Known about the structure:
By secondary structure, the chain is an alpha/beta fold. The chain has two domains: 7-244 and 465-475, Glycogen Phosphorylase B (Rossmann fold, 3-Layer(aba) Sandwich), CATH 3.40.50; 248-458, Rossmann fold (3-Layer(aba) Sandwich), CATH 3.40.50.2000. It is 45% helix and 17% strand. The chain has helices at 36-42, 59-68, 89-108, 122-145, 162-169, 186-189, 194-204, 215-229, 248-254, 258-271, 295-308, 330-350, 366-375, 391-398, 414-417, 429-441, 444-458, 463-473; strands at residues 7-12, 18-22, 28-32, 50-55, 81-85, 146-155, 174-179, 209-212, 238-241, 281-288, 316-323, 358-361, 378-381, 404-408, 422-424. β2 (18-22) and β3 form a beta hairpin. α7 packs across α8 and α10 packs across α13 (366-375). The radius of gyration is 23 Å and the shape is globular. Bound molecules: 6-O-phosphono-alpha-D-glucopyranose (G6P). 6-O-phosphono-alpha-D-glucopyranose (G6P) binds at residues 15, 156, 180-181, 325-326, 387. One of its GO terms (biological process) is trehalose biosynthetic process.
Amino acid sequence: MAVTQGARILVASNRGPVSYARTETGALMARRGGGGLVSGLSAIGPDADAVWVCSALGDGDREAVRRTGGALDPSETGGQRVRMLGIDPGVHADAYNGIANSVLWFVHHMLYQTPLEPVFDKEFRRQWASYEAYNRAFAEALAQEAAEGAAVLVQDYHLALTPRMLRGLRPDLRIGHFSHTPWAPPEYFRLLPDDIAAQVLGGILGADRAAFLTRRWADAFTDCCHAVLGPGIPSGTRVGVHGLGADADFLRERAHRPDVDERMAVLRKQIGSAPDGTPRRTIVRVDRTELSKNIVRGLLAYEELLQSRPEWRERVVHVAFAYPSRQDLAVYRAYTAEVRRIAEEINSRYGTPDWTPVELHVKDDFARSLAAYRLADVALVNPIRDGMNLVAKEVPVVSDEGCALVLSREAGAHEELGDDAVTVNPYDIGGTAAALHEALSMPAKERAERTKALAARATALPPGRWFLDQLAALEV
Length: 476
Ligand code: G6P
């Protein structure tokens, strides 16, 4: 069922701006999400004619789709017109868990770790058929919702095939595809079976524009097109770059609300003071428990710091927030367990009655994340690969007294922030330990100056600009 006739602007993504869950009393509760797309889209203003097409992700969402036919109640979406697709749960699981998160995410983040991975067998082909069906459901919904000549912004690796399918249904539309992930270099991308690699690229090339967070990922995409499809980007698709920055106004206001102050007080108490009475130093990380975030090597680097630089023992605490993610996948569950195990091991090896070396928290709490950002002396952002990494951009914006940033050279954010960060090779545990030492030892004045420079660069492209620039680039 169409939300409305003929929207001028459409956004398509797997996860929408709202999700539904049952409360204990059995009522269906809408919960609005955050992120770059939500605040980016708000920049077009409430009167703009826009529809967001997304998928139902859980039972609560499916119930909401049953009740509304898919056109969600705008009072529950912050006024945003949303069409939520009630895709068959089995098809969604194959497309999202099977292909998007276990294959395409792994390829772009170069995560396969054993000689036995990946496996492209019959089961993969079955899941791929679901991925095609899932992409087609989006293409059909977008084709129904879009006005003549409308602009459609298709998001991410979940929807790599949708632009080509939509082009076939509605040649009049202006279509953009945006990748929020890194893009793999051809030698890794070509792990995919040749026909699948060609479909992924060809799907995105159905758009007028294929856009990426950094030049590096855009170039890798172009290289893959040359390697898989032959020289030249066929079909006249333009390749663009739109960096996404932190939302300074929102963050600064949100980070100074009373709930954040309360959590700072709790954290300060947990962190405590060194034997000489001075407050302990704090190394903070905030991530989803995501394989690409490299949390385990971060903990091992911290352990190496305590081992090789005993002067830091009892004088520093590693506050690690590792929020559960994609727990339907066994490999994510195992990784979460490994993060917990190593944190406990460090605590039992080095901890004292007055000092817990690692404060690991796994319950998602945005206010507490902001509290940690404000009081951190050092932020550890060491992903194996990352499209951008907004934590690296958010910390300097809200830091109270300056925070040294230890940043992986493989994060997209490094292109903009590298000059004022302490750069690490994410695989090098010894190098990361040395970087933590350097960051902890940075004089306060230098730390404050660098934080200022980082914040200026981190906020240069706020989500509203990022979104409007993409729309403007489709006008041609
Ligand atoms: C991160 C990535 C996005 C991706 C999203 C999916 O935010 O940067 O590229 O779309 O994760 O996460 P989900 O929890 O929906 O699987």
